[in-house]
Amino acid sequence: MMLLLTEKQYELVKKMLPLMEHLYKNDLVPLFKLIAEDYGDEAGAAEKAAAIINDMGITAPNIRKAMQLSSLSSTWKLEAHTIKNGPFVYTVELDDLEKRLLEKTLDVFSRIVMGQLHILFEAMDMPENLQDNQHAVDMYHDVYWDGLHGAKDARDLLFPAIKDFGWHGGYGIASKEVAEDARLAYQLNRALCKNYVLPVTDEPLAQLA
Predict the structure, then answer these.
(1) Fewest beta carbons within 10 Å, which of 86, 127, 152, 200?
(2) Nearest by Cα to 14 from 69, 83, 85, 87
(3) Is the dihedral of CA 186, 192, 193, 195 positive or negative?
(4) Distances, alpha carbon 76 to alpha carbons 3, 11, 42, 99, 120, in Å
C-alpha cells in the first residue's frame, strides 16, 4: 500500500514513532515533553507527570510493541520518496501489518495528546507479577476509570486548560484548544482506516494508492 502525504503529515509520523516507542518501553517523558511543548506547560511539567505515573507501579514495558515501532520508524525513513503531486510531497510504502500498526499508533497518540490520559493505561501493559494481585488490579481500575492515585493530577499538569473537566472530560478533536499534533494524527488515522474524516486541520487528506 502506498501513502501520499504532505510534508506536515510525513513529519508528524516521523516525530511520533520514536516517542511511542519510548512510551512502550515505559519511558513517558519524551511523549510528555511533546505535550508540554504543544500546550505551553510550565517547566518540569512533563517530568513531574511522568514521575506520578511511574510511582504508581502499574505500567510495564511492552518490548514487543516497542520493537515493532522501531522497525516501522526505520521503514518510514527508508521507504519514503519525494514527489511533486499537488500538495503531496512524500510517498511511503507499507505492508498490511505496518499499516495496521500505524493506524493503532496514530489513534493512541492522538487520544493521549488531546488529553485522554486514561488511554495511556489502556495501551500499556500491567507488570506480570501484579496481574494476579487484586489490590494492584483494583488500583488500575481506580486509575483508569476515575483518575485516582494521582492520575488526574498528572493529567492536569500536562493539560491545565482542562483541569476543571472530569477525568474523562476534555475538548473535542475539532477544537482549536486541542494541539495540532493530536488533530493531524486523528485525521491521518481516519484516512488510513478509510473512515469518514472530520476535517480538523487545514491539511488535505492523505491518499492511499
Answers:
(1) 86
(2) 69
(3) positive
(4) 11, 10, 33, 11, 24
From the list 56, 59, 36, 58, the residue with the least C-alpha distance to 46 is: 36
Closest CA to 88 of 3, 184, 174: 3
Instruction: Quick: pLDDT tens for 164-203.
Output: 999 999 999 999 999 999 999 999 999 999 878 888 999 9
Q: How far apart are CA 94 and CA 79, in angstroms?
A: 8
- One-letter amino acid of 119: I
* Residues in Cβ contact with 208 at an 8 Å cutoff, skipping those fewer than 6 apart: 1, 2, 3, 4, 191, 192, 194
Record the cell numbers describing residue 93, joined without a space.
510504502
In the chain, beta strands by DSSP E: 2-5, 80-85, 88-93, 207-208
Reading the block at residue 103, the C-alpha cell is: 493506524
Distance between CA atoms of 45 and 117, rounded to whole angstroms? Answer: 15
Q: Give the cell for residue 186.
A: 486523528
Q: How many domains does the chain have?
A: 1
Domain residues for the domain of 12 are 2-208
Tell me the one-letter amino acid at 187.
Q
* Contact assessment for residue 90 and residue 105, using Cβ atoms and an 8 Å cutoff: no
Tell me, what amino acid is at 70? S
